[in-house]
Write a structure and sequence with these properties.
The protein is an alpha+beta fold. The chain folds into four domains: 149 residues, Distorted Sandwich (Calcium-transporting ATPase, cytoplasmic transduction domain A); 253 residues, Up-down Bundle (Calcium-transporting ATPase, transmembrane domain), CATH 1.20.1110.10; 160 residues, HAD superfamily/HAD-like (Rossmann fold); 211 residues, Calcium-transporting ATPase, cytoplasmic domain N (3-Layer(aba) Sandwich), CATH 3.40.1110.10. Helix content is 47%, strand content 18%. The chain is built from 31 helices and 29 strands. Strands 10, 11, 12, 13, 17, 18, 19, 20, 21, 22 and 23 form an eleven-stranded mixed beta sheet that branches. The chain has an eight-stranded mixed beta sheet with strand order 8-29-28-27-9-24-26-25, sandwiched between helices. Strands 1, 2, 3, 4, 5, 6 and 7 form a seven-stranded antiparallel beta sheet that branches. A hairpin with a 2-residue loop joins strand 14 and strand 15. The C terminus is likely disordered. The structure holds adenosine-5'-triphosphate. Adenosine-5'-triphosphate binds next to helix 13, strand 18, strand 19 and strand 22.
Length: 918
């Protein structure tokens, strides 16, 4: 038999072949040996471009090539010093560009790693979450709905499993999976229903599989052309700036041409003027703008990671800042997902449960009295059903409870699995009903898994006497529909409409107290009925009881919701839970106020047409009992109203809504692989506050991009204008080619990058969201850029003319203009930190990088003016004290202006405050 035809073999044969064990999996040492033998579970990546090739790519820019050509000519003509200086400057610029790109790439690579897939396997007898790249043949994969397969495997155990294999077979309908049948060796890929393949996803059910192929040995690895090609798409802003850059190139070239022609017409040397024109073009064309934008985006993304938000798609950073609505799941995101059972209802009795968290310390009380579980049979049946219809495990000090750890007083209790289910195991333990003991007496033979749409799950257990019992638990309304009897302490009785009304009243009361309520039911089955276990068995059930659990809101969510309101962002709760529970929690969180906002259920949504929903969607802040399909409708309706929607999700069926949202947010802890893959951002801690922190970062990053665009463009306009006006006015050339290139180097590089990491303005979350269509130059930025550009140009020319005409020394005048141009920009960079506040309102020390960059640039500038060897290269001469006074006053007068503005800005504020104080 061919080794790769695993689908033609029985599970036992495959386990035997791979020398592995269904319950214990592989041992750590065996995994190590297999990793050495088979390598990591990775697909071969596209070869990376070597660093020196990427460095050389920095010189591919047309204008830089022209400059290098011209430099070569000047070297031939004997201008060695000039040629070498230009070469060094070009080289330094290239290094800067290379470092920027490298940093951006590193951050993106780090991001990819963070979002890299994981897999659940059984190793050393325990279920573990491991990085998918460490999977080896023989590993036992534990699969659940929403998992994306990272290796090929032969199924050995399945419960209602369906997989979506379109990536491999092109078939978009999910394929039903089975474990206990072999297929012919010539069965095509799509028919091998006992196999799961890397690149496909589980969309329903659960199961286990033994890994048979990893890495390039998988089916996906065999398909030629599927080799990963990592193309990073430019963000809309990057694309727009690239377009702008192209426009600016032509504008700059035209002006440079005018400078060259007028200079030559005035009798300057053609060669000198050409060099000046080319240098000016190199300096003025903001070719590095898109790269710096990428750096700013990537660095911002790094900051977001520290706040637990992992951005998967860079364009999301821009959109985040525009978010107007955050639609958030309730359980675990707005609440703590730390469930504690508080009340139980069985056979007409309402029991209270004491204790907190997953600690089993606590009691079940009836009328303040501790109960005797042997007498409260209905309660016992309810807890037994809840503990068995359950996939969570109770642990103490991280050790699974096996019957030894039974001291109720000890702490360190935790649960592994779904908190809702964990809470039930804990409640049962408080009544001395131990899940582990129950499972020793009966064995699970089938499961109809929980799904958000069904709002229930069922299991079938068989005991040693061959009795078969089906246990169901789920949302009370769903379970009650399936019940014909109810459990009394004396045994099952017919379910009357009075008792149903009573159950509903109790359920309403519990949900009104913000409790999440589940119903438990059971039925006995004949052996024949267990042959094909499916949903059709979920009928004629015996209602055992209601379990109400509390899940307190997250403290930090309250503060974040207030921040959202101040920032013009609406918070909407979307939950599968009961409407009353949802409203009670929403009220605590200040999302919902009776009479002011609306709450809709999934049923309400079904009865509304698209237009009707569009009409009211702005006023709805709570959606309860919704299924994932409803989420899609909600996103669409909000988008119709012009909202920019962030939507959270965890289950596999949330993926379409997450994709449709402007910002799809997946849960890092509880989210499935499929949801994560569809999302733009992953919350590592599942916390609502993290979304808000990410929105704030998104706004900050965008503002920082505006800051350095403002800085770079106004400086470049200043440089071009200096040369252009001088040529128009018939003045001598105010700056030499090397000086122009130098200005570009010391001002454009580090200070601009430092602006990219400026801390967020504290008022950033007190403004309304930005419109996504808004131009990066809106809100008066163009006026600010052009105005400051003109001012820098005129200031430089002013200093040049004053020194030149009063002292009649061209070298001195050029040095003074050279210094003025640099220092104008050094002062200006501080102005660019805020569009609303003056320099004096912002603390200088909050951006240490900027202080360091400006200090460094200042020292660099002083060196070319005072170190004799550099003076001769840059044709500079030392400035006198009065020259410096002129240079600094002209370059720094905006600082004075700012000071005045600051004083005047504060006065009216004080006056305005007076009446309120009275
Ligand atoms: P969110 O608020 O994050 O949407 P949710 O937990 O409220 O999450 P679902 O997980 O879809 O929403 O649950 C919907 C309903 O299904 C719950 O209100 C509960 O009645 C029921 N339910 C939840 N978990 C389970 C479970 N493990 N077994 C059976 N029923 C469950």
């Amino acid at each position: 038999m061919d080794r790769e035809k695993w689908y033609a073999r029985t599970p036992e044969e495959v386990l035997e072949f791979w020398q592995t064990n269904f319950t214990d999996g592989l041992s750590s040492s065996e995994v190590k040996t297999r990793l050495d033998k088979f390598g990591f579970n990775e697909l071969a990546e596209k070869e990376k471009t070597v660093w020196w090739k990427r460095f050389l790519a920095q010189f591919q820019d047309f204008m830089v090539l022209v400059l290098l050509g011209a430099t070569l000519i000047s070297a031939f003509l004997g201008e060695y010093a000039d040629a070498i200086t230009i070469l060094i400057i070009v080289l330094m610029n290239a290094i800067l560009g290379f470092v920027q790109e490298y940093r951006a790439e590193q951050s993106l690579a780090a991001l990819k790693k963070l979002a890299s897939p994981t897999a659940r396997v059984v190793r050393n007898g325990m279920v573990q979450q491991i990085p998918a790249r460490e999977l080896v043949p023989g590993d036992i994969l534990v699969l659940e709905s929403g998992d994306k397969l990272a290796a090929d495997g032969r199924l050995i155990d399945v419960f209602n499993m369906e997989a979506e294999e379109a990536a491999l077979t092109g078939e978009s309908l999910p394929v039903r999976k089975i474990a206990d049948r072999n297929f012919n060796e010539d069965a095509p890929l799509g028919d091998r229903r006992n196999m799961v393949y890397a690149g496909t996803s589980i969309v329903r059910g659960r199961g286990r599989a033994v890994v048979c192929a990893s890495g390039m040995a998988t089916e996906v690895g065999h398909i030629a052309g599927m080799i990963q090609a990592s193309t990073e798409e430019a963000t809309p802003l990057e694309k727009r700036l690239e377009h702008l850059g192209k426009l600016l190139v032509w504008g700059c070239l035209a002006i440079c041409l005018v400078v060259v022609i007028t200079g030559v017409a005035k009798g300057e040397s053609v060669f000198l003027m050409c060099m000046a024109g080319i240098s000016l073009a190199v300096a003025a064309i903001p070719e590095g703008l898109p790269a710096i934008v990428t750096v700013a985006l990537a660095l911002g993304v790094q900051r977001m990671i520290k706040q637990q938000a992992i951005v998967r798609k860079l364009p999301a950073v821009e959109t985040l800042g525009c978010t107007t609505v955050i639609c958030s799941d309730k359980t675990g995101t707005l609440t703590q997902n730390a469930m504690t059972v508080r009340q139980i209802f069985a056979d007409g009795n309402s029991y209270d449960v004491s204790g907190a968290g997953y600690d089993i310390k606590g009691n079940i009380l009836l009328n303040q009295q501790e109960i005797d579980i042997t007498k409260d049979k209905a309660l016992e049946q309810c807890l037994v059903g809840g503990a068995l219809c359950n996939n969570s495990v109770l642990k103490q000090n991280n050790v699974t409870i096996t019957g030894v750890w039974r001291k109720k007083t000890e702490n360190g209790w935790s649960i592994e699995g779904d908190p809702t289910e964990g809470a039930i195991i804990v409640a049962a333990a408080k009544a001395s009903i131990w899940q582990v003991d129950l499972e020793k007496k009966q064995k699970r033979i089938a499961e109809i898994p929980f799904e958000s749409e069904r709002r229930r799950m069922s299991v079938i257990y068989r005991d040693s006497n061959n009795n078969n019992i089906l246990y169901s638990k789920g949302a009370p309304d769903t379970i009650l529909e399936l019940c014909r009897y109810y459990q009394t302490n004396a045994g099952p009785a017919s379910l009357t409409s009075e008792y149903i009304a009573k159950i509903n009243t109790i359920s309403e009361r519990m949900t009104g107290q913000a409790l999440r309520v589940l119903a438990v039911a059971y039925r006995r089955l004949t052996p024949a009925q267990t042959q094909n276990p499916d949903e059709s068995l979920e009928k004629d059930l015996v209602f055992a009881g209601l379990i109400g659990m509390i899940d307190p809101p997250r403290e930090e969510a309250k503060a974040s919701i207030i921040r959202c309101r101040e920032a013009g962002i609406k918070t909407v709760m979307i939950t599968g839970d009961h409407k009353n529970t949802a409203i009670a929690i929403a009220q605590e969180l200040n999302i919902f106020k009776e009479g002011q906002q609306k709450a809709l259920t999934g049923k309400d949504l079904d009865s509304l047409s698209e237009a009707e929903l569009d009409a009211i969607v702005n006023n709805v802040t709570v959606y309860a009992r919704v299924s994932p399909a409803h989420k899609l409708r909600i996103v669409r309706a909000l988008k119709h109203q012009g909202h920019i929607v962030a939507m959270t999700g965890d289950g596999v069926n949330d993926a379409p809504a997450i994709k449709e949202a402007d910002i799809g947010v997946a849960m890092g802890l509880t989210g499935t692989d499929v949801t994560k893959e569809a999302s733009a951002m992953i919350l590592a801690d599942d916390n609502f506050a993290t979304i808000v922190a990410a929105v704030e970062e998104g706004r900050g990053i965008y503002e920082n991009i505006r800051k350095f665009i403002r800085y770079l463009l106004s400086c470049n306009i200043g440089e071009v204008l200096t040369m252009f006006l001088a040529s128009l006015l018939g003045m001598p050339m105010p700056l030499l080619p090397v000086q122009i290139l130098w200005v570009n180097l010391v001002t454009d590089g580090l200070p601009a990058m430092a602006l990219g990491v400026d801390p967020n303005d504290p008022s950033i979350m007190r403004r309304p969201p930005r419109h996504p269509g808004e131009s990066v130059f809106s809100r008066g930025l163009t006026r600010k850029i052009v105005g400051r550009g003109i001012q820098i140009g005129i200031s430089t020319l002013l200093v040049f003319s004053v020194v030149y005409y009063f002292q009649n020394d061209l070298a001195l005048a050029r040095t003074a203009a050279f210094a003025t141009l640099v220092y104008c920009q050094m002062f200006h960079v501080f102005d660019c930190r805020s569009e609303t506040n003056t320099i004096f309102e912002l603390k200088f020390s909050t951006n240490k990088y900027l202080l360091a960059a400006v200090t460094f640039s200042t020292i660099m500038q002083l060196s070319v003016m005072y170190i004799p060897f550099l003076c001769s290269i840059f044709s500079t001469v030392p400035l006198s004290l009065s020259d410096w006074l002129l240079v600094l006053t002209v370059s720094g007068w905006t600082l004075l202006l700012n000071g005045f503005k600051h004083i005047f800005k504060r006065r009216p504020a004080r006056r305005a405050a007076l009446p309120q104080n009275r």
